[in-house]
Design brief:
The chain folds into three domains: about 60 residues, Trypsin Inhibitor V, Chain A (2-Layer Sandwich), CATH 3.30.10; about 70 residues, Trypsin Inhibitor V, Chain A, CATH 3.30.10.20; about 130 residues, Trypsin Inhibitor V, Chain A, CATH 3.30.10.20. Helices cover about 25% and strands about 25% of the residues. It has six helices and 18 strands. A hairpin with a 5-residue loop joins strand 15 and strand 16. About 0% of the residues have low confidence.
């Protein structure tokens, strides 16, 4: 059977064009309002659940029930959440989305990231706390020690061991601080360090909550090499040649005699030396203060030590 469209007149042509337009309109309407909604679940929306704080193991059940897809986009450390826990999501909770929409998540990693330990020594306690937070580190125990550096961090430790700046450490690690709390209120006699080695002196100072100050070398001393020969403050109050103690134990200038005028002129150019008197009152000191020392470094023993060091470091000809 053959079908012919007659266009013998303008009216017939108009009818046929109208029929063609109707068919096209039906197809367009069917595509956009029937096929597309059916193929894309048009009109089916769900509310996005709140996934923050949910572990990855429990996510699939929540998303599958709503026809949503899971995409882990990034990871970030947070001390408030366990590993593999959702920290943030997009779209936000309770937002209406189509079925099949992808939900992008940021989760906490299995192990906290590694950072370099910052240097906290020498800065104030307040600044140290701020620096720890900026590195995602936790403030541990705070110990106070008598020291002239009030509220200043003296050392930093992890698990009881000193940790150096730049050392690898995981975020979230607790860092203990030793902080100076100023000098003590009570005065006590200055300990005698003369005759001790530096190592022995440091042990003595720790018992008094004192610190070793400047270490000087006295090359003119005849004492054994490495021995402390002088300290400041000294154990006893020392006097100049023109000083003496009064009845109350205070240091005063000696009374000048007329007979001593000539001696005064002759001794004016001489270097004054302190006189040590063990009957004199002892100097006082407070916890947290420093004691400077002078260590014997006589040239003969120093030269012997240098020769020994050079011998130890010289290449062995027999080994070549």
């Amino acid at each position: 059977m053959q079908f012919f469209i007659r266009t013998d007149s303008p009216w017939q042509t108009f009818i046929h064009v109208g029929i063609a337009l109707c068919i096209v309109a039906i197809l367009v309407i069917s595509f956009f309002f029937i096929y597309l909604p059916w193929s894309t679940n048009h009109g089916e929306v769900v509310a996005v659940p709140n996934l923050v704080g949910v572990s990855l193991e429990d996510l699939e059940e929540k998303l599958d029930a709503r026809g949503l897809e899971l995409v882990v986009e990034d990871s970030s450390y947070s001390k408030s959440y366990r590993p593999y826990t959702v920290l943030s999501q997009y779209p936000e909770p309770n937002e209406k989305v189509k079925v099949g929409r992808k939900i992008y998540l940021t989760v906490s990693p299995k192990d906290p990231p590694i950072v370099k330990m910052p240097n906290l020594t020498g800065i104030t306690y307040t600044m140290a706390m701020m620096r720890l937070r900026s590195y995602n580190l936790e403030l541990g125990n705070i110990k106070f020690k008598p020291d002239m550096a009030l509220d200043v961090v003296l050392s930093q430790e992890v698990n009881g061991k000193t940790i150096q700046s730049g050392q690898a450490i995981r975020m979230g690690t607790h860092v203990d601080l030793l902080v100076g709390n100023g000098v003590g209120d009570e005065e006590f006699d200055v300990p005698d360090l003369e005759g001790l080695t530096l190592e022995e002196a440091e042990d003595v100072l720790k018992g008094y909550d004192l610190d070793l100050g400047v270490v000087n070398t006295d090359y003119e001393s005849e004492e054994p090499f490495g021995t402390i020969v002088r300290q400041n403050p000294a154990v006893y109050i020392e006097l100049d040649d023109d000083e003496e103690f009064d009845e109350d134990g205070r240091v005063v200038k000696k009374k000048k005699k007329e007979d001593d005028d000539d001696k005064k002129k002759s001794n004016s150019k001489k270097k004054k030396k302190k006189r040590r008197d063990k009957k004199a009152p002892k100097n006082k000191i407070r916890a947290g203060e420093l004691i400077d020392v002078w260590v014997s470094g006589n040239e003969e023993e120093l030269a012997v030590e240098e020769v020994v060091e050079e011998t130890d470091t010289a290449p062995n000809v027999d080994d070549e």
